[in-house]
Amino acid sequence: MNAPLQCHLDAEALARLSELDPTGQSRLLKRLLSAFEKSLDRMVPQLEQARDAADAPAMHLMAHTLKSSSATVGAMVLSRQCALVEDLARQNRLAEAAGGVQQMLLEAAAAREAVRCLALQLDTPASAA
């Protein structure tokens, strides 16, 4: 009746995670999604502070950390944007890095919604779909 929600996370990354918990009994994917969302809650304000302070090392660190975790959960657009900001901050190209951070923040919001979407699907019994 209702179309399934489109969560826009990389299917291959999610498949790799699902292989680690084939039965889903340990709820690994759900726990990883929750951990990723909590890391966004913590790191987004730090990223904004780093941008506002023109703190290239902090921008580099936040981008580097989010790059890996976002790729793990399949938020590949965010991961690529993080890689760009990481590189710009490493080169101390602050104006470009600040613009990249702004795009990172938009992509982080989209990734958060995708993670919430998938978590909701994981909580919905298959018979209800």
Q: What would CATH call the architecture?
A: Up-down Bundle
Order of helices and strands: HHHHH
Anisotropy-based shape: elongated
**Unreliable stretches, pLDDT < 50, 5 or more residues?**
1-5
Helix content: over 70%
Tell me the strand percentage band.
Answer: under 5%
Q: Would you identify the CATH H-level superfamily?
A: HPT domain
Largest sheet: none
Radius of gyration: 16 Å
User: How many discrete domains?
Assistant: 1
Q: How many β-strand runs?
A: 0
CATH topology: Four Helix Bundle (Hemerythrin (Met), subunit A)
By secondary-structure content and strand pairing, the structural class works out as mainly alpha
End-to-end C-alpha gap: 9 Å
Mean pLDDT: 90
Count of helical segments? 5
